[in-house]
Amino acid sequence: MSFENPGTANLAYFPCRYGNSRLLFRGPKQSLDEPYCAVVGGTETYGKFIPRPFSTLMEERLGLPVVNLGCVNAGIDVFMNDPAVMEVVAGASVTVIQALGAHNMSNRFYVVHPRRNDRFLRASAMLKALFPSIDFTEFHFTRHMLSALRQRSETAFEIVVAELQMAWQARMRSLATRMAGDKVLLWVTHGARDGDGLGDGQGNRPGDGLGSDPLFVTRHMIETVSPYFARVVEVEASEAAIATGTEGMVHSDMDAPAAMALPGPAVHREVAEALTPVLQELMP
């Protein structure tokens, strides 16, 4: 499932840019002339359908600006490829980096769009050799492509996943190394609501079978990259927060299925509660 349009008619996201970045971030735009924190991440960080995402809640608790650098459907590559984002992060007192899925980034098997990382562009010769009967021109999105590969051959699919996991660890180390100052790795896990038609209680998409978000990221991978961060904050959404479903989310009827697949305001509150004391400890 893709959430390509970062806005709805019902909720104002005040999209803005920082520096020369071609990326649109959620506003209102923050001043970078005074001390601030930055949050780098994907759809959850952006706060799709969420009136007050966890970055806003942290800002209220910390008493200083928190720059929301979340991008809808982002992978690690979108930030690695944007010097303007790295400049914003370099000026932050502390930076929070959301652990993103391993599927939305270029690797030895396939290439993704440099800014819209969920967009599949082309397969490498290695992947074509591994799946000779697959017509890769039929795919436009990474999850759709990976789901088809899994259905074709579990054994070959596991080879692809192993490559994605190794590439993720290398890319995360590189991203953290390039970022100045204290960095916090945020690992958020949440299950899809029972009976919403969008998952099996483990965050799986319908007919997908790939696993829960962040896709293919394991505890071992988090532990491997943790030395590159000042802190690692793990937030496993509580059953009570998950049970609230889309309560408090703002979306159209057409966007209801997409909203059900994302963490709601209660989960955002739990993330803010977990992050705030860590940032307070690290801030100079």
Question: What can you see in these coordinates?
Answer:
There is one protein chain. The chain is of the alpha/beta class and 284 residues long. The chain has one domain (37-282): Rossmann fold. The chain has 11 helices and 7 strands. It has helices spanning 43-46, 54-62, 76-80, 83-90, 125-130, 142-152, 154-178, 219-225, 239-243, 256-260, 265-282, and strands spanning 37-41, 66-70, 94-98, 110-112, 120-123, 182-189, 231-236. The chain has a 5-stranded parallel beta sheet with strand order 2-1-3-6-7, sandwiched between helices. The protein has a two-stranded antiparallel sheet with strand order 4-5. Helix 8 links the parallel strand 6 (182-189) and strand 7 (231-236). The longest helix is centred in the middle third of the chain and has 25 residues, at 154-178. The chain starts with 36 loop residues before the first strand and ends with a helix.
Largest pleated sheet: 5 strands, parallel
- The poorly predicted ranges are 1-9, 192-204
Strand percentage, roughly?
A: 5-15%
CATH topology: Rossmann fold
List the total number of helices.
11
Structural domains: how many: 1
SSE order? EHHEHHEEEHHHEHEHHH
CATH class label: Alpha Beta
What is the averaged pLDDT score?
90
Q: Termini, distance in Å?
A: 41 Å
What's the architecture, going by CATH? 3-Layer(aba) Sandwich
User: Structural class, judged by helices and strands?
Assistant: alpha/beta
Spatial arrangement of strands, main beta sheet: 2-1-3-6-7
Q: Helical proportion? A: 25-40%
Task: Estimate the global geometry from the Cα principal axes.
Answer: globular
Count the E strands: 7
Cα-based radius of gyration, to the nearest Å: 18 Å
CATH homologous superfamily? SGNH hydrolase
